[in-house]
Specification:
Shape: elongated
CATH topology of the domain at 131-269: Rossmann fold
Strand content: 15-25%
Structural class: alpha/beta
Helix content: 40-55%
Radius of gyration: 47 Å
Largest sheet: 5 strands, mixed, barrel
Distance between the termini: 128 Å
Strand order of the largest sheet: 1-2-3-5-4
CATH superfamily of the domain at 131-269: Response regulator
CATH architecture of the domain at 131-269: 3-Layer(aba) Sandwich
């Protein structure tokens, strides 16, 4: 007889479920996200929308699952025998104890190679500083000419020209025609960028093309294009593909736009916004001019009052009154002294002759007359200078008045709805327009609408 087995309390006994769960957690922690390349086989598409398949190479295979919420973004239809690149988390299917890959991204192997080349070039150029924000050039607020490097027959140039005509049609556009895909396209694009930079015919350069696959856009992922953009002295705006497309040119450019149309919106301001701002500035200038004139008028009035208060005539009157008082005191003193000291009459008469106040009074009177003349001249000069400043201010105000422009022979023309006309294409032949002159208005009928350069 064998003794009954006693329970070993030191043992940690795993259930199968616990073992599989912990192995799953261990795999997930060790291989959170990895890229795996292989051939598709045993592809299954159940009604749930999930994809189940095997990924294999010449010597091994592994089960894979791509759930429905992840497979909607696939740009191709997976098929057995297709070489693919997947990004996945290593996990374990606990019910069977099979380890598998939970895929969250799948690419065709060709795109995967391009993507790896893209990432490698991106990291290398970033390490060299080609994408540094400190080297980005600011866009001009209003370019004198815009350059566009793109295909002359593509939809991108039509979209760009349409946006520029709508937002600011006065800015000219210079097109540098290049192929935007295919062999040699990258070299042609880089050469066009260098040519535009050497000629300096443009203030800003748009690099554009429409959307496409990664392979279609590959010319804009070439190193030669990125280095040409970085070396350019004029700012470059990249508008390549759609919003989801990202190229090396986007990182090297001074500004990245999601589409060619958005790139056109970046390089020019909105004409209507500028006109509204100009009207606002004109109104502000008018208010400030009126305020300054009012302030100047108030200051002139204050100076006139101060001048009146400090007028030399008032001081002269006070001095004259003081002089009269001194004269009376002198007369009284003389009479008293003559009365008290008659015996000293001869001596006092001699002293009085030496200190006779008559010459001093005459000099004082002459000085009073001189000061009065200087005062009158100073007053006239002050009034003349004030009048000149007032006339200058009036002339300056008149120069900014729209009425002065009309006096020079110009007219303000309004259309049938009373809106001021800026472009002849806003009316058609037969429309009634009104022209406001310096004096009076003319009601006219349009015989013909001519473009610039058309002969009458």
């Amino acid at each position: 007889m064998f003794p009954a087995a006693q329970p070993d309390t030191a043992r940690d006994v795993f259930s199968v479920s616990r073992l599989n769960a912990e192995v799953r957690d261990l795999l997930g922690a060790t291989f959170p996200h990895i890229w795996v390349e292989g051939e598709l086989s045993n592809l299954a598409r159940p009604a749930s929308g999930h994809l189940y398949f095997t990924l294999k190479d010449a010597r091994a295979q592994v089960r894979c699952a791509l759930f429905r919420n992840r497979n909607r973004g696939l740009g191709f239809v997976p098929e057995d025998g297709m070489q693919v690149l997947v990004r996945a988390e290593v996990s374990l299917y606990e019910a069977r104890g099979d380890y598998q890959l939970i895929v969250d991204r799948m690419e065709a192997a060709g795109d995967g190679a391009l993507r790896r080349a893209f990432e490698a070039l991106k990291q290398r150029l970033a390490a060299e500083g080609l994408f540094d924000e400190a080297s980005k050039r600011p866009l001009p607020p209003l370019p004198r000419r815009i350059g566009v490097v793109t295909s002359p027959s593509g939809a991108a140039i039509r979209d760009i020209l349409s946006v520029l005509r709508r937002r600011f049609p006065a800015v000219p556009v210079l097109i540098y025609p290049v192929p935007v895909q295919g062999e040699g396209a990258a070299g042609r694009i880089a050469a066009a960028i260098r040519l535009a930079d050497q000629r300096r015919d443009c203030d800003v350069l748009i690099l554009a093309r429409g959307g496409g696959s990664l392979e279609d856009l590959w010319a804009f992922n070439e190193e030669v294009v990125a280095r040409a953009i970085h070396a350019a002295r004029i700012p470059v705006v990249s508008g390549v593909g759609h919003e989801v497309d990202v190229t090396i040119a986007d990182f090297a450019a001074d500004r990245r736009a999601p589409t060619p149309s958005a790139a056109a919106e970046l390089v020019v301001p909105d004409r209507d916004e500028w006109l509204a701002r100009l009207e606002s500035l004109e109104s502000r200038l008018t208010r400030l001019t009126r305020q300054r004139l009012a302030d100047a008028g108030q200051r002139l009035e204050w100076l006139a009052q101060r001048l009146q208060q400090r007028h030399p005539g008032a001081r002269l009157r006070q001095q004259a009154q003081r002089l009269d008082e001194l004269e009376l005191r002198l007369q009284r003193t003389l009479r008293q002294r003559l009365h008290r000291a008659g015996q000293r009459l001869a001596t006092l008469e001699a002293r009085l002759h030496r200190h006779d106040p008559a010459p001093r009074l005459q000099a004082a009177q002459q000085r009073c007359h001189s000061l009065e003349g200087r005062l009158q001249r100073a007053l006239r000069q002050t009034l003349e200078r004030a009048g000149q400043r007032l006339a200058t201010a009036a002339r300056q105000l008149e120069t900014v008045s729209p009425l002065a422009t009309l006096e020079r022979g110009y007219a303000i023309v309004t259309g049938p709805e009373g809106r001021i006309l800026h472009d002849a294409r806003e009316v058609a032949a037969g429309d009634a327009v009104e022209a406001r002159l310096a004096r009076g208005r003319l009601r006219c009928t349009v015989d013909a609408v001519l473009e610039d350069g058309d002969e009458c």
